[in-house]
């Protein structure tokens, strides 16, 4: 494939995606800043000298790509760049995007449904990251796919958290298994698992409290939940997903690492992407955790949760609305 090929292909594929409008509006803030800086860098009159590479580095880091990831990206870009012949800066940009795509790599998507009973998903993450809202969005998504869904109110720390999930469940017309405030969340999980088995629920989504006490307490609480769930339903929990607020950037990521140490996180859901101008965080997450993003929260509406799609992401970040027919 020639150098222009990648960008052109990306554009052609993006035009046909059903998610494209949600992506474009969710990445509007990120795109606005990033595109202007990229346009300046890849201006046809520019020389790719040391100053240019420094400017590229700054632009990447400003978009929340960590220094480590940005260095890796630029090294790779230079390596491929040396072997190729360029006539335009647009070709160089296309190569940068394809290098980004390569270093991101691939990641399996979505939930593997259990063949023997309810599939249980445990949602973890710090307070305010968007866990409860995301559970509602996931519930709506699986419901729309024809699955029966129930939710468990495992954040028993605050009464308002239980009520919040109950309100969502009511709106979506799905069962919500809840206990009382301050009840042991593990006992709520036991009730929820039993309910799910008795009522042939396909997907049980479990909310948890996000308070970051000390690490030992967090580990104990999560491992107890894990234990009781696995005792009730064979192979459960089938997935543990971490919810991360994109607006907290790399700081949020380092906080979230406590959860990754405490439990076997299989996927990340990055929320509030629409509220940040720093879309590079997605690349950083993949490089630093090797876990990768499964879903993106691109707005507050139920339909604004979208499966992460690398091509849509790269297109929305680099090109955006103006480049779509
Ligand atoms: N703009 C935007 N807001 C979000 C998104 N996801 C969650 N929120 C908001 O973030 C706030 C905290 O969400 P919540 O689900 O209560 O967080 P929790 O404490 O982790 O359960 C709420 O006001 C949500 O509406 C998103 O993708 N985009
Ligand atoms: Mg909550």
Total beta strand runs: 8
C-alpha termini separation: 24 Å
Read across the widest sheet, the strand sequence of neighbours is 3-2-4-1-5-6-7-8
Order of helices and strands: HHHHHHEHEHEHEHEHEHEEH
Polypeptide structure, described:
By secondary structure, the chain is an alpha/beta fold. It has a domain at 119-271: P-loop containing nucleotide triphosphate hydrolases (Rossmann fold). Helices cover 53% and strands 12% of the residues. It contains 13 helices and eight strands. The chain has helices at 3-15, 20-26, 28-41, 50-62, 67-83, 89-104, 131-144, 159-172, 185-198, 215-232, 249-262, 281-289, 310-318, and strands at 119-124, 149-154, 176-177, 203-208, 239-245, 267-271, 293-297, 305-307. Helix 8 (159-172) links the parallel strand 2 (149-154) and strand 3 (176-177). Helix 4 crosses helix 5, helix 9 packs parallel to helix 10 (215-232) and helix 11 (249-262) runs parallel beside helix 12. The radius of gyration is 21 Å and the shape is elongated. The mean pLDDT is 93. It binds guanosine-5'-diphosphate (GDP) and magnesium ion (MG). Magnesium ion is lined by residues 131-132, 155, 161, 207.
What's the quick description here?
The chain is α/β, with parallel strands linked by helices and 325 residues long. It has helices spanning 3-15, 20-26, 28-41, 50-62, 67-83, 89-104, 131-144, 159-172, 185-198, 215-232, 249-262, 281-289, 310-318, and strands at 119-124, 149-154, 176-177, 203-208, 239-245, 267-271, 293-297, 305-307.
Features of the shown structure:
alpha/beta, 325 residues, Rossmann fold, 8-stranded mixed beta sheet, binds magnesium ion, elongated, binds guanosine-5'-diphosphate
